[in-house]
Amino acid sequence: MDTRYSTSFIYFLVCFTVVVFADKNNDDSCTPTNCKLPDCRCPGHNIPGGYKPEEIPQMVLITFDDAVNWENWGYYSRLFPPDGSRKNPNGCPIGMTLFVSHNYTDYCMIKKLHSRGMEIADHSISHRMPQKWWAEISEQELRDEILKQKTNLADLADVPIADIKGWRSPFLQPTGDTMFSILYNNNFTYDATMTYPYPRNVYSPVMWPFTLDYSYTLLCNIKPCPKNAYPGFWILPVVILMDYREEQMCAYVDYCANAPRNKQESFDMLWKNFLRNYRTNRAPLYINLHSRWLNTDYNIDAMDDFIQRLLSMEDVYITTVSKAINWMKNPKTLSEIKNFDPWKCNFKPNQEDDAFCSFTYKPRITARPTSTIPPENDVHEKQETTNHGKHDHRPWFLKNSASMFKPVVTSIVFVIYVFKMLA
Ligand SMILES: [Zn+2]
After folding, report:
1. Predicted confidence pLDDT, tens digits, the chain (423 residues)
2. Could you tell me which residues belong to the region Disordered (predicted)?
3. Ligand 1 centroid from CA 362, angstroms
4. Which residues pair with residue 289 across a beta bridge?
5. How remote is the CA of residue 214 from the centroid of ligand 1, in Å?
6. Distance from the CA of 7 to the center of ligand 1, in angstroms?
7. How close is the Cα of 139 to the center of ligand 1, in Å?
8. What's the pTM value of the predicted model, to 2 decimals?
9. For residue 64, how far is its CA from the centre of ligand 1 (angstroms)?
């Protein structure tokens, strides 16, 4: 080959390689062309299926974190009645998602809630403090926290392992690729840990759930975020809420610095956040909270009113995270939704639903210093101590004599000793 032609050929080859490499780089970012439903969805505000907001259901995803026991059982039964009488417009009972940690959880209650159609998800074994521990946790420790709790939910509450699809890290603290690779390789469908800022204002659209098919390029609110891609794995974004005064932002309803002071303010907070989604792009409304918010009477009354108000709307569905993802994979209009199979009723209250459900399972408390007990679990620790304190297993002659026992024994030993000396 002529030198002139061979130089041109090499030049062409280099240019071609650069172009291909550049295109490859472009392929690494998520676009509507290279990422399509049902298995891939780019982060964004556009409505799946290209529908108009008024054509689709407004989904409301209420999620509670931490242990389930007598501290919150009454609240959950009031908001989501055991008879399934609160129904979505398709005639099926409303649902919520519970991210359950192990310590202090009564698995009998989990079994009942699951049979009523609530989604049960994983929230660790120990839920230990501090938050930083979860950022720096070793792969083996995190694997144990995630997978052992998944096993607990399946073995102790009879939740089918395939139904445990979601994970939320304690304190919304991600552990980068360590966490995502464990979830991805162990058949989880979604993570609900990653926090995202409040949209610019009340008129700005809200982020929809998305998949991690392409490397993570979004703002990393709490580090470390993942860097790698996890095709088909979903992120349920924890979009920050606005308080009732529209001044401060909060990841959880119960974390707002401007705490509501009465029922109207509590209701206003829930309602204003709802309207933002409902009047813009109808992304699911993410209501994340801990049951302790409901310890205040006007808060649970407001939440009750909020749910009842939503039930009166023909285009609103109070549902679970997994059902929201099912809809996203196969978006349906309001007119089609009543025949949408994944949203068909799965309410099967078990026979002994009204039976007394106590601490049938004694939680294995993870050995750790008292100072590491998370604040939200303090109350359960006190309650457990009180309950067990009622059962005094000492012999009858020692009961009610703890304070006197030592001095009396010491005196007897002393008298015997004196007698022996005198003998
Ligand atoms: Zn928690």
Report:
1. 444 444 444 433 433 333 333 334 445 789 999 999 999 999 999 999 999 999 999 999 999 999 999 999 999 999 999 999 999 999 999 999 999 999 999 999 999 999 999 999 999 999 999 999 999 999 999 999 999 999 999 999 999 999 999 999 999 999 999 999 999 999 999 999 999 988 777 778 999 999 999 989 898 999 999 999 999 999 999 999 989 988 888 999 999 989 999 999 999 999 999 999 999 999 999 999 999 999 999 999 999 999 999 999 999 999 999 999 999 999 999 999 989 999 998 777 655 555 556 655 444 444 333 333 333 333 333 333 223 323 332 222 222 333 333 343 344 444 444 445 444
2. 370-393
3. 20
4. 64
5. 28
6. 64
7. 20
8. 0.79
9. 9
**Within 10 A of 282 (CB to CB), how many other CB atoms are there?**
23
Q: How close is the Cα of 131 to the center of ligand 1, in Å?
A: 10
CA 127 – ligand 1 centroid, Å: 7
| CA of residue 222 to ligand 1 center, whole Å | 16
Distances (CA, A) of 230 to 34, 174, 193, 211: 15, 15, 15, 8
Is 41 within 8 Å of 328 (Cβ atoms)?
Answer: yes
Q: What's at 274, amino acid-wise?
A: F
- The alpha carbon of 121 and the centre of ligand 1 are apart by a number of angstroms equal to 12
- Closest Cα to residue 376, out of 62, 69, 156? 69
CA of 244 to the centre of ligand 1 (A): 23
Q: Which of 266, 306, 299, 301 is nearest to 285 (CA)?
A: 306
Span from the CA of 197 to the centroid of ligand 1 (angstroms): 20
Q: Where are the domains of the chain?
A: 33-343, 374-418
Q: Does domain 33-343 have CATH number 3.60.20.10?
A: no
